[in-house]
Specification:
Elements lengths: L6 H4 L2 H10 L18 E3 L1 H9 L1 H10 L11 H14 L18 E2 L6 E5 L4 E6 L2 E4 L5 E8 L11 H16 L7 E9 L11 E9 L5 H13 L10 H10 L2
Parallel strand pairs: 1-4, 6-7
Antiparallel strand pairs: 2-5, 3-4, 5-6, 7-8
Helix pairs in contact: 3-4
Length: 252
């Protein structure tokens, strides 16, 4: 028979039990949601940019459908984009470019215009892109175009690296779909200018920035993103505001 505990020892047992109960097993890394048979996961330039900002948020978005919270977003840019596209459509199929960009771009608007492109990577993953516009030169080569609404003078702002990859990815998708590219892409910035006679029309500054494109950079980026998705839940980026918030409130 065992030795009977003293009164002092017995008084410690409830506290010990409480401590043991509070020790939860280590949390396991979450597993991706099962993918329906035959259905691919489609990556995009925007998705890969999310991975560059924070691999953990990227993994959670594509594997568990947990998205970063959306802040206050103005829908004005979406409306503006629709107005611009309808304006460009007025010149599609003609022998002239829209006057806003005439003389700054070589070629004519693609007719008919193909907006969405897809490329298969493997049985589980693919890559997609949605062009704002596409210009075709006389040598039958294609130049991707992306529209940007600017809140500051576009002639003085530095290029956002994500915009370069966006044009690279559009060029890669065009070539994957048997459309040879010109080796360049256009960013067309639309910026509201100052004016004294707004009642006669809202003045708009239009700036075309032409960038060299390198489609060879795209596939390695896609494969790197797929490797992240097929691996365990990665660490958060040190400066990710969403992950920092979660870690901060966890303390409370």
């Amino acid at each position: 028979m065992g030795t009977k505990p003293t009164a002092a020892q017995a008084s410690l047992f409830p506290a010990k039990r409480r401590r043991l109960a509070s020790k939860k097993p280590a949390a396991k890394s979450p597993a991706p949601l099962p993918r329906p048979a035959g259905k691919k996961t489609w990556l995009s330039a925007t998705g890969i940019e999310t991975m560059r900002r924070c691999p953990r948020c990227f993994w959670l978005q594509y594997n568990l459908r947990i998205y970063q919270p959306e802040g206050i977003v103005s829908r004005l840019a979406n409306r503006f984009d629709g107005v611009i596209k309808r304006y460009f459509d007025l010149y599609r199929g003609t022998t002239a470019l829209p006057p806003l960009v005439a003389g700054q771009i070589d070629g004519l608007l693609e007719q008919p215009f193909q907006e969405k492109y897809f490329a298969t990577i493997d049985n589980d993953y693919g890559f997609l892109g949605k062009l704002d516009e596409c210009v075709v030169r006389s040598d039958h080569k294609y130049t991707p175009v992306d529209h940007k609404t600017a809140s500051s003078d576009p002639t003085t702002r530095e290029l956002i690296p994500a915009y370069q990859f966006q044009l690279d990815s559009y060029a890669w998708l065009l070539e994957q779909n048997r459309k040879p590219t010109t080796g360049i892409g256009h960013l067309i910035y639309f910026y509201p200018s100052e004016g004294e006679k707004l009642h006669e029309g809202f003045p708009m500054q239009v700036t075309v920035k032409t960038l060299p494109t390198d489609p060879s950079r795209v596939r390695p980026a896609i494969l790197g993103a797929i490797a992240v998705l097929r691996g365990p839940l990665p660490a958060a980026a040190p400066e990710c505001p969403f992950c920092l918030y979660v870690e901060t409130v966890r303390k409370f």
